[in-house]
């Protein structure tokens, strides 16, 4: 299974960037997105260290809500 996570771009030095999610910062590649389409403050879907698409804030929030729910279920299963 492949999982991408939404992250907010906080620094850009194209083709690389620093993105943040839930207080964790990572250096990511922007090579799959056109340079003129990404700005600091944008949200991107990150898979294996690569931004694969630009998304809006609402989509990022919805995805994190779903991921948090999955993690909660997995945590409960481990406790049983």
**So how many helices?**
1
CATH topology type: SH3 type barrels
The largest sheet is: 5 strands, antiparallel
Straight-line distance between termini: 24 Å
- Uncertain runs are none
Tally of extended strands?
5
Please identify, by name, the CATH architecture.
Roll
Q: Can you tell me the number of structural domains?
A: 1
* Portion of residues within helices: 25-40%
Widest sheet: strand ordering: 3-2-1-4-5
Computed structural class? alpha+beta
Helix/strand order = EEEEEH
Description:
By secondary structure, the chain is α+β, with helices and mostly antiparallel strands. The chain has one domain: SH3 type barrels, CATH 2.30.30.140. It is about 30% helix and about 40% strand. It has one helix spanning about 55-80; strands spanning about 5-15, 15-20, 25-30, 45, 50-55. A five-stranded antiparallel beta sheet has the order 3-2-1-4-5, with helices on one face. A hairpin with a 2-residue loop joins strand 1 and strand 2. The chain is elongated and about 50 Å long. The protein starts with a strand and ends with a helix.
Topology of this structure?
Blueprint lengths: L4 E9 L2 E6 L2 E6 L13 E5 L2 E6 L1 H23 L1
Antiparallel strand pairs: 1-2, 1-4, 2-3, 4-5
List its salient traits:
40% strand, 1 helix, 80 residues, SH3 type barrels, five-stranded antiparallel β-sheet, single chain, 5 strands, elongated, alpha+beta
């Amino acid at each position: 299974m492949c999982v991408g996570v939404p992250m907010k771009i906080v620094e850009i030095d194209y083709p690389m960037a620093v993105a943040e999610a839930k207080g964790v910062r990572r250096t990511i590649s922007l090579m799959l997105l056109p340079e003129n389409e990404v700005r600091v403050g944008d949200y991107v879907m990150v898979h294996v260290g690569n931004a694969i698409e630009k998304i809006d804030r609402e989509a990022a929030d919805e995805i994190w809500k779903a991921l948090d729910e999955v993690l909660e279920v997995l945590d409960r299963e481990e406790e049983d």
